Give the backbone structure.
Amino acid sequence: GENVEQHPSTLSVQEGDSAVIKCTYSDSASNYFPWYKQELGKGPQLIIDIRSNVGEKKDQRIAVTLNKTAKHFSLHITETQPEDSAVYFCGGIKAAGNKLTFGGGTRVLVKP
Amino acid sequence: GAGVSQSPSNKVTEKGKDVELRCDPISGHTALYWYRQRLGQGLEFLIYFQGNSAPDKSGLPSDRFSAERTGESVSTLTIQRTQQEDSAVYLCASSLTRQFSGNTIYFGEGSWLTVV
């Protein structure tokens, strides 16, 4: 089955700086890669996603890039703010599959 | 409601007791998932439903765990003879169809289970 690895496990950045989280996946048939943000005591919320026919997608301060050949994708947060502090999870899934496999999560701390 | 609803939000139970956790998916969502999240850990897949059937039960950790779904709506996750290692947040999620190529999975707020 699919295996998704996520790095780093923790990330501390100064407010205003950029944060980058990287994920790799094992199954070349995977074609949908969502990113979730989980705040303390809450369920994960989708913040951005990318399909395998797209190399990059951007939504305001958040962007995701996908390299299908290398089987890795990354989340980029620019101009970080304290409210960006949370745990972020990447996921991967096949079009015909039904199980969304998550990476281990990255705890992001934005220091004011 | 507009989102995935889970109950109870918090449950403390004694070791050895059975517990039932309920999930109300978003109306019209045919796919429903259960994940487990231990404190400070990642999201562990438990089971997936398409309609009322469960084509993927591969994540259920033992035969003490079971889940059912009725009316293509509400799902119940049952843990029998709870153990302390069952303490975790149990998250339910739903999506429109079984084809994940782009269909967003929406999560509930979770049921926090503590076994003492």
Remarks:
- Residues 14 and 116 of chain B are 5 Å apart (CA to CA).
